[in-house]
Description:
Layout: E1 3-6, E2 13-16, H1 25-38, E3 40-43, H2 50-58, E4 62-64, E5 80-82, H3 95-98, E6 118-125, E7 133-137, H4 138-144, H5 147-153, E8 157-160, E9 182-185, E10 187-189, E11 196-198, E12 205-208, H6 213-226, E13 233-236, E14 243-247, E15 251-255, E16 266-273
Parallel strand pairs: 2-3
Antiparallel strand pairs: 1-2, 3-14, 4-16, 5-16, 6-14, 6-16, 7-13, 7-15, 8-9, 8-12, 10-11
The structure holds 2-oxoglutaric acid and fe (ii) ion.
The site of fe (ii) ion has 4 residues, from loops.
Amino acid sequence: MVExxxxxxxxxxxxxxLDVKTLDDAGFAPIYQAWLDYNVIVVPGxxxxxxxxxxxSRRFGLIEPHPSKSTRHPEYPExxxxxxxxxxPDGKLxxxxxxxGAEGWHTDGAYDDVPFKATQLYGIAIPSTGGDTLFSxxxxxxxALPERLKARxxxxxxxxxxxxxxxxxxxxxxxxxxxxxxFHPIIxxxxxxxxxxxxxxxxxxxxxxxxxxxESDDTIEELTGLMIQPDAEFRHKWRVxxxxxxxxxxxxxxxxxxxxxxxxxxxxxxxxxxxx
Length: 276
Ligand SMILES: O=C(O)CCC(=O)C(=O)O
Ligand SMILES: [Fe+2]
């Protein structure tokens, strides 16, 4: 019996009693609906090959290789390996690998004209302590914005790059570091739910289109302070065999980045785009 149980107050659900390898279309429909409703879905206890993981991931959309070429799986470019090659040849911890995704709340792929719809991770090795992933709902962030900001931001687009204002580009090859920004509406209407959310990423945004520099900087700072609503968070504590998929269109996430560096924390990861 497949059971869908809510986790956080506004986001998060867990699907129990499921083997994604034997799932058919009829079985997938309520899971996809729960994903749209709760924005991040945990499916525990899966035993998967790379091909199993890719097949299940394709149910959500088109898988696209991540621009960080150095962290791709050597045989499957669609798979990004999180947490491997954490130590350099000198034996020193490489912060860009260890702290990947932990520098702040973000949404994946805002630097692309067509950002990733979803990101899905599969837990391969989980440390004894720490290493959680945190999520926060951006429908709730939009709903809580002061009316003044909602009105000011309607129709405004943000300019986003991979490295943002800090140019955090360490995981990109040099030839991929200077792409022009992508522009996206800051108040975003979800193509499947029709609901409005805040679409914002403090680490990737450069400026707000049409704003004077000072107002752009001030508004970015204000949004950074307002984006996380205390009752809209969900924190996932990983177990080996967990699959977690999140909707980048309506939530932000970050890695806790706090596990013992000498322990392994390894995930397979796919980036998924909308099928048009
Ligand atoms: O490792 C994690 O917990 C999440 C990392 C992340 O931000 C991502 O995979 O997009
Ligand atoms: Fe991320």
